[in-house]
Specification:
Layout lengths: L3 H20 L9 E8 L5 E8 L6 H22 L7 E6 L2 H33 L5
Parallel strand pairs: 2-3
Antiparallel strand pairs: 1-2
Helix pairs in contact: 1-2
Length: 134
């Protein structure tokens, strides 16, 4: 359970890091990186940054190393942009929930197509199997 202050700092870090990644970071490994969530520890000294990749072909390992390499730059730019006594350390973690959600959507679509195919075939089977009543 997070406090109001934790949520405020997390939202601030989320907004500013998103802008920094969009406008100021030049590393090609970070193209298509989107921050999905920021969680700040109760002491406000560590921010866990969850990110996902927009491009399916992008390498998670390459993006992770690019974020870790840019971590110092991002933290210093964050310190210049926000009014916090201490800027939290940044820890980057890949968020696989978007890919997992997409996989679930694909499975549900496949089930829907299979049901539609079975429904389309079912009336034909019933018509040929019925015997006339006398």
């Amino acid at each position: 359970m997070s406090t109001r202050r934790q949520r405020q700092v997390a939202e601030l870090v989320h907004r500013e890091l998103s802008l920094l990644l969009l406008h100021d970071v030049r590393d090609p490994r970070l193209e298509g990186v989107t921050i999905t969530e920021v969680r700040v520890t109760p002491d406000l000294l560590l921010a866990r940054i969850f990110y996902t990749l927009l491009d399916d072909d992008a390498s998670v390992a390459g993006s992770q190393s690019g974020l870790e390499r840019a971590g110092g730059f991002l933290r210093s730019q964050l310190a210049a942009r926000v009014k916090l006594r201490l800027v939290p350390e940044l820890e980057f973690m890949h968020d696989a929930s978007a890919a997992y959600g997409q996989h679930i959507d694909e499975l549900l679509d496949q089930i829907g197509r299979d049901d539609a195919t079975q429904a389309a075939q079912a009336p034909d089977d019933q018509d040929t199997q019925e015997e006339p009543r006398t």
